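Let's practice the habit of predicting before peeking. Look at the sequence and jot down your guess about where helices and strands might fall. Then scroll down.
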Amino acid sequence: MWVSSGATASSELNRMCRAKHLQGRVIWFDAEANLRELSTRKGVAETVRKCRSARINTIIVDVKPLSGLTLYNSKIAPKLVSSEGKAYPRGYDLLKTVVSEGHKAGIAVHAAINVFSEGSQKVSGGPALRHKDWQCVQYDMDRVLVTDDGTTMSLRASNGPYPGGLCAYGDNSNVIGELPPGTVCVRVAKDGRPIHVEVVTGQARISSPDGGFILLGDNDSGVWLKQMAEAGTHFKIEGKEVMRRVGEADNVHHAVFVNPCNPEVQAYELSLVREICENYAVDGIVLDRMRYPNLYTDFGDVTRSAFETFIGRKVKNWPQDVFARPVIPGRDVLRGPLFKDWLKFRANVIRNFMSKARNVVKSARHNAQLGVYVGSWYPVYFDVGVNWGSPGHCASDLEWWPDGYEETGYADLADYLCTGCYYTHPTRKEALAKGDEEWKSVEAAAEESMNAVADETFVYGSLYLYQYKNRPDKLLKAIRQCLSKTQGCMLFDLVYVRDYDWWDVLKKAFPKPANAPHEAPALLGKASSIRRDG
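Done guessing? Here is the structure:
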């Protein structure tokens, strides 16, 4: 499923960048995490000064976060005016300030937007909350827990961190992490019989029984669950399919996504890209969250019509001909005859949007670069409707791969990709030594990225710095893996460099100045020629 060691050895772009001493040294300024520290020119200037001293050559500043409220003076989108009860400086333009200070320091500045996230369940005022018809329609399953005597209790299905309330985790699921004090856990066998009851406090690591499931409850739901289980009550999960807007869905993440297939949504997002390019001296645009939120979106009427046009016929059983959601949470969806067509359709929607975005950037500011931020886990990235690989990269050994899926790849439309190598182990060897699979390493993730992109564009292995808290030596090693396996490293995020005072670590990682590969786009054409001739 994952590429083997040495997958980057044949990269022509790696060879060219080494020969010309080019290296992407990119740092991300997250909007929410750095909101206060970057809300003054003085704060921006001091941060940029430290970036220069650490020999960073590219700053990516997030100016449209998840909420859809901008941190630049937009005439199209609503602007952030307050956060956590505190007013944001009136008239302050973060993008203008970072561009000005970055250019003074000789650092390129790229503006990032969260493309299809236009609202937050924690912040009011986002476009998705005002245009509910723009929101993704999520194919959900409302589940209830039924006992022997017919009592029913609503369930919050969860395959991620425990959100509280009465939750079920299906077979092949694990509950790992910190649980609220007094959380009741019941392991339920395939026949509905409770086989283990315990009250968990603190860290938990609980596996579901084969064919069965786990029930968790806290507060009143925990008391009830414990009483029922200790009485030997059998449990059954029942479900009802339902379609709902993502703003109303019970989601562990607060982002409210709009439908990438909706022409109005696309026009709106492209207008923001044009506005930034025309009004700010940015060196590039970076598209983040240019995707669907999950596998279960979008199933609205707009998307159904577009999908039927794509396959050339009406869908008789919607959505079951695509897939059906299982009643037991955590199980794989039940694939229908159109499942692979659906994967190809969604990826095609994103490639087409990417093509439009590139045209807007290059027409509005022809020297600006277009970057994209994605996750490195390419073999399962179909889950969010994206193929960020090369259009020439065929991975038909993946069991879900549709015929012609490679045509939906958009790496050829990007000037660079930042791929999130979000693992705590810098190398394959270290992952194996800790008992993990070797793909759970920065090294393997970087190689997976290079393999999928196939030198179609520049790749910068990207690190989630929080994973290296109190481990600066591992961070340095992880950065060096990115620099060795790809053409650079993107650091997410500034807040951790600042809070952990890791500027000296960056100076060790980047001992000499270097220009970024994306500032030499002609190399992409040369690499392409070598591939064709070879």
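How did you do? The chain has a mean pLDDT of 95.
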